[in-house]
Amino acid sequence: MNFRIADTFTDSLARLTGEEQKLVKTTAFDLQMNPVNPGMSFHKLDRAKDKNFWSVRAGRDIRLIVHKTHADLLLCYVDHHDKAYAWAERRKLETHPRTGAAQLVEIRERVVEIPAPRYAERERPAAIKRLLFAQTPDETLLSYGVPSEWLADVRLADEDSLLELATHLPSEAAEALLELATGGQPQIVRPKMPAGADPFEHPDAQRRFRVMTDVDELERALAYPWDKWTIFLHPAQREWVERDYGGPARVSGSAGTGKTIVALHRAVYLARKNHESRVLLTTFSDTLANALRTRLRRLVGNEPRLAERIEVHAMDAIGERLYERRFGDPNIASSQAIQDAIEKEAKAAGEKAGRGFLLSEWDELVDAWQLDTWEAYRDVKRLGRKTRLPEKRRAALWAIFESVRVRLKARHLVTRAEMFCRLAADATERKRPAFDFAVVDESQDLSVAQLRFLAALGGGRPNALLFAGDLGQRIFQQPFSWKSLGVDVRGRSRTLHVNYRTSHQIRMQADRLLGAEVADVDGNKESRRGTVSVFNGPTP
After folding, report:
1. Residue 91's pLDDT band (boundaries 50, 70, 90)?
2. Residue 311, beta-bridge partner list
3. Do 64 and 206 reside in the same domain of the chain?
């Protein structure tokens, strides 16, 4: 018998008290171990429209709602007795007639009110608002996953009622309608599934139903009921987690679209699929690396041998670790040491340019690209630099920077850019890379030298590099060409369009301020068109 849980179960479990949750978890574990145990208090729900709904007692007043057939047991919902029963009486589990996906459908009950006669002064009729989907064919609405009995309600939806209507529909239908209403064109998932295929195997079904294969997996799912991402993935996310790539790939999206979730699941997927591999999961700061490490424990905490093959580090931290292993202590030059060296050499040369300009010229050009000759500095592209310099001016500046390089070398100091460039050169010569795969979160803030190192680490191998980031959130780095460093994501770049963290109302306001499209130096475009939010909130 297949034992599954629904996202509605984890959502409802999170709303119970701690003691109530303990009772529910114990009952759930018992059900998984032996669903036909005569000691379980099953009660058939006679008033439910779906005759396969049963309740299971968990304590005096707590009831689990399960959907039970000869082949499957699905945990659907949990609450206090009356609320649990009321939930079940308004739901049914069915296979969508058009998409073939399993859905928990809310039963539409229409109540016709007979208005009492009014003898007040006649009011001016309100303006009739445009019905958003009045001209959309039934077949199209069904292809989005709209349940048949909700077609009439969808046709009557206007801009005021759509958000409320969306809360009653399966998620794939709600997302498609919101995208259609905002001028987008929903992308319909039509997997090649044979006739009679299991409706729970449909990608849209897997975003809300999950088979629990053992007690450890169920325990992990119920231990963090508020972190649905550990169990349920959107089809677009799952596609990018499990896809094979012929080279470097990048997943993009605005804040809240689940890029980090894709990165985490991708790292686990690679480690699980490649049994002897070592996977690097990295980001640009220690704080974010710690957050990734915590989330990774939630995802694979019950698989220690798998977890030990996934290393989570900030980019600078893994750089220093690998450098020390290969070359000894890197003796990193501090920002203050570099600043002092530039100021001394500038003063000696009588340079009048401001300290800020000289530091940025060093950080973004000379050190970033490891320019070690006058010709290299003269010819380098000045992307993102607002100051245009004639050749004579550049020559004067190069004399200063060359002296800074000599000064740092004399003190045996290494810049972080120099560290990563040396690691990149070493990686190209090694037969076995330090890591078989690297997954990078917040990749928009990678430096030139860091990307150079990652390119060498990947070595052009299939699936070796996956980047997750948002060009619109770039904070610390000037734009530069990834392609010039050997990281070409053309044809392997995708933008996520479902927002899980920002309400529909706030996102709509933000869309008015942000551009609809962002492009990188290599011409890869990230489109924000068609992004939808999965929940409502107050108008900002």
Report:
1. very high
2. 280
3. yes
Q: Which two tokens stand for residue 7?
A: 């996202």
Question: Cα-flanking dihedrals φ and ψ of residue 257, to 5°?
Answer: -90, 0
Beta-bridge mates of residue 95? 102
Q: Are residues 215 and 240 in the same domain?
A: no
Read off the DSSP letter of residue 365. I
User: Looking at the predicted structure, is the pLDDT value of residue 521 above 70?
Assistant: yes
Asked if 81 and 8 sit in the same domain, the reply is yes
The domain in which residue 527 lies consists of 227-285+434-533
| Per-residue confidence band for 250, with pLDDT thresholds at 50, 70 and 90 | very high
Name the strand (E) or helix (H) holding 72. strand 72-80
Question: Cα–Cα distances in Å, from 351 out to 332, 337, 394, 397, 400?
Answer: 27, 19, 12, 8, 9
Bridge partners (DSSP) listed for residue 192: none
What's the rounded Cα separation, in Å, for the pair 25 and 4? 14
Cβ-contact 316, 416 below 8 angstroms: yes
Cα–Cα distance, 343 to 40 (Å, whole number): 78
> Which contiguous run of DSSP H or E holds residue 221?
helix 215-223
d(CA 405, CA 432): 32
Dist CA 173 CA 144 (whole Å)? 5
Segment 259-286, tens digit of pLDDT:
999 999 999 999 999 999 999 999 999 9
Residues 401 and 471 in one domain: no
- CA 324 to CA 331: how far, in whole Å? 10
β strands within 384-427, DSSP E:
none
What CATH number did the domain enclosing 17 receive?
A: 3.30.2310.20
404 contacts 329 by C-beta, under 8 angstroms: no
Please indicate, yes or no, if residue 100 is contained in any of the structural domains. no
Do residues 479 and 525 both lie within one domain? yes
DSSP assignment of 261-299 equals: HHHHHHHHHHHHHSTT--EEEEESSHHHHHHHHHHHHHH
Residues 385 and 494 in one domain: no
Coil, helix or strand for 471?
helix
The pTM for the full model equals 0.77
The single-letter code of the amino acid at 24 is V
Residue 479 phi/psi, 5-degree rounding, is -65, 145
Q: Which amino acid is at 536?
A: N
With beta carbons less than 8 A apart as the criterion, state whether 188 and 154 touch: no
Q: How far apart are CA 459 and CA 436, in angstroms?
A: 10
* Alpha carbon distance 200, 101 (integer Å): 6
- What whole-number distance in Å separates Cα of residue 131 and Cα of residue 141? 14
